[in-house]
Design a protein that fits this description.
alpha+beta, four-stranded antiparallel β-sheet, ABM_dom, globular, single chain
Length: 104
């Protein structure tokens, strides 16, 4: 398993709404086309309306590379910059979990 935790901070409320729309469109493609993407969850942060947290879990690094190569992901990566003031990315090394393939 290979994972990411990404914290995005949007520029303002209008940017947050546009970012959420972009996330929804991109998520539809991910669900339909990426069997190697095990979890792709997006959360709002309670009490911090401009922040979003993504939790992404991939079957392996090859599945992540497939994800990153998709046209809709490249579009997301380009378009998101218009809406964001900061991005923090943590790469995760899976240890254990419930409800995911490859439980240890």
């Amino acid at each position: 398993m290979f994972g990411l935790m990404v914290r995005f901070t949007c520029k303002d409320e209008a940017a947050a709404a546009a970012f959420d729309e972009l996330v929804t469109r991109t998520g539809e493609h991910i669900r339909a086309n990426e069997p190697g993407t095990v979890i792709y969850a997006v959360h709002r942060v309670d009490g911090r309306p401009l922040e979003r947290i993504f939790y992404e879990l991939y079957r392996d690094t090859a599945a992540f590379e497939v994800h990153e190569s998709q046209g809709y992901v490249r579009e997301f990566l380009e378009e998101r910059e218009r809406y964001l003031s900061s991005t923090q990315v943590d790469r995760l090394d899976f240890v254990s979990g419930k409800g995911v393939d490859g439980e240890r």
